[in-house]
Amino acid sequence: MSDKSSNQMWGGRFAAGPDAIMEAINASIGFDKRMAAQDIAGSRAHAAMLAAQGIVKDSDAEAMREGLLTVLSEIEAGEFAFSTALEDIHMNVEARLKELIGDAAGRLHTGRSRNDQVATDFRLWVRDQLDAADAGLTALMKALLAQAEAGADWVMPGFTHLQTAQPVTWGHHMMAYVEMFARDLSRVRDARARMNECPLGAAALAGTSFPIDRDMTAKALGFDRPMANSLDAVSDRDFALEFLSVASICAMHLSRMAEELVIWSSAQFRFVTLSDRFSTGSSIMPQKKNPDAAELIRAKIGRVFGANVALMMVMKGLPLAYSKDMQEDKEQVFDAADNWMLALAAMEGMVRDMTANRAALEAAASAGFSTATDLADWLVREIDLPFRQAHHVTGALVAMAEKRGCDLPDLTLEDMRSVNDQITEDVFTVLGVHNSVASRTSFGGTAPVRVREQVARWNEALR
Ligand code: ARG
Fold first, then answer.
1. What is the mean pLDDT of residues 304-309?
2. Tens digits of residue pLDDT in 226-260
3. Alpha-carbon distances of 430 from 241, 328, 350, 435, rounded to whole Å
4. DSSP characters over 1-58
5. Which residues on adjacent β-strands are paired with residue 166?
């Protein structure tokens, strides 16, 4: 053990230390130091349990507790010297603990392995991120709700194929995202509930002969229960994959919304004005105000998808139980989590700060014959045409308006009657965009009354 060239944790059977390349490929301390707080929490729970079970002396456990707190404060203060030779966060912490409290530190690893230790640390880390995502999604939904409430009856074009389809309300469009992010939030909560079991005490893979109390450590770490199979506990990373899957779906939603903001903030659309706080200028074109945050959300999302695929690839060929391949789980998840949280926060800020341009939305809503379906529906309802025939009559009127370069409400009653002589003056009541949206009162429809109901429901749910 005194031989510096050989490892202080397993130097017993090693005559030589590792090659520099071996150390470089093997070490994870460069990134897993992000789990320091979780590692120390796990060790504290384990130490307290060892003492409670009479496996180590109370005085040793007390020394471990104090020593671990010192290590944590050193790390938090940025005073800790991380060592690549000590490979990972687990051995860095333990080695420092030994410097601080001496031989008692060597008893901490009783009935435990780095395999259950890393699985525990990583679960705790991912759990924290799920909680952060929960808060981020809730904040974003609140920002969307505020937009929806303000513009529950503002009209805008609804699109299919990015072609004007039917008028919808601004509030309805905002609430569509509330529904999407609400499902993301429910996936976050499902994932958290499923992953909240404790691997600690699975030891290397088979459990341990020491009389440990796994319920005690699980409870101390806020887990619902210990994991029931030691092989599974140390060798699955499905919780991280579920995190990445949930993150990917949410990221896809964020990216679609980002894409809409990019389009909507363009001079051609002018549907929204993004705040200065969430825009950038151009170094050459003085008129420019660019939606960079939206573009970066759209782009960063690729990392989240990439991490999901990469970790699937790491895991898919591994026999039970632990393999070192699994050390490659962390960087992917860290990077995805960082970018997901940033994207959530940036989207929340953009939505909170943006101004919807009511007049531009309304002008666009009436363009493109957006009430053609209302006209066809009127023909069905009022003069009992079969829908297919009504569609045909309306198509002819749209063609007429297009040829004249005007909108449907600009056609005269004579024009209308030239296509179908049963049409009456009453038809004009359905050609306006406000009437159009107000008429769509079916459950889930775009009518302001329905939108306000949904806003109220979600305001209540998020309170
Ligand atoms: N740094 C390792 C990891 O992240 C810890 C577990 C190492 N276990 C082992 N048997 N080599 O996976």
1. 98
2. 999 999 999 999 999 999 999 999 999 999 999 99
3. 51, 61, 35, 6
4. ---TTS-TTTGGG-SS---HHHHHHH--HHHHGGGHHHHHHHHHHHHHHHHHTTSS-H
5. 158
Q: CA–CA separation, 24 vs 85, rounded Å?
A: 9
158 bridge partner residues = 166
What SS3 state is found at 212?
coil
> What is the three-class DSSP state of 197?
strand
Q: Which residues contact 346 (CB under 8 A, 6 or more apart)?
A: 278, 293, 296, 297
Which of these, 161, 25, 134, 155, lies nearest to 88 by C-alpha position?
Answer: 25
Q: Tens digit of pLDDT for each residue in 429-438?
A: 999 899 999 9
Rounded to two decimals, the pTM is: 0.92
CB atoms within 10 A of CB 104: 20
Do 115 and 53 touch, CB atoms closer than 8 A?
Answer: no
pLDDT of residue 1: 37
DSSP per-residue string spanning 262-285: HHHTSTTT--EE--GGG-B--SS-
The per-residue pLDDT for range 12-63, each reduced to its tens digit, is 778 788 889 999 999 999 999 999 999 999 999 999 999 999 999 999 999 9
Residue nearest atom 2 of ligand 1, based on CA coordinates? 327
Per-state percent for the chain, helix, strand, coil, to nearest 5: 65, 5, 30
Distances (CA, A) of 80 to 74, 137, 455: 5, 34, 50
Catalytic sites, residue numbers: 161, 282
133 in helix, strand or coil? Answer: helix
- Location of structure tokens 């329905």: 450
Q: Which tens digits make up the pLDDT trace of 155-213?
A: 999 999 999 999 999 999 999 999 999 999 999 999 999 999 999 999 999 999 999 99
Looking at residue 19, what DSSP letter applies?
A: -
Nearest Cα residue to 9 out of 93, 101, 117, 120: 93
- Pocket flag, ligand 1, residue 28 (CB < 6 Å): yes
Check if 322 has its Cβ closer than 6 Å to any atom of ligand 1.
Answer: yes
At 4 the pLDDT is 45
Q: Is-contact 140 348, C-beta < 8 A?
A: yes
Q: Find the helix packing angle between 238-264 and 170-195, rounded to 10°.
A: 170
Q: DSSP states of 159-182 as a string?
A: EETTEEEEEEEHHHHHHHHHHHHH
Mutational test site, ligand 1, from 39, 87, 118, max ligand atoms within 8 Å of CB: 118
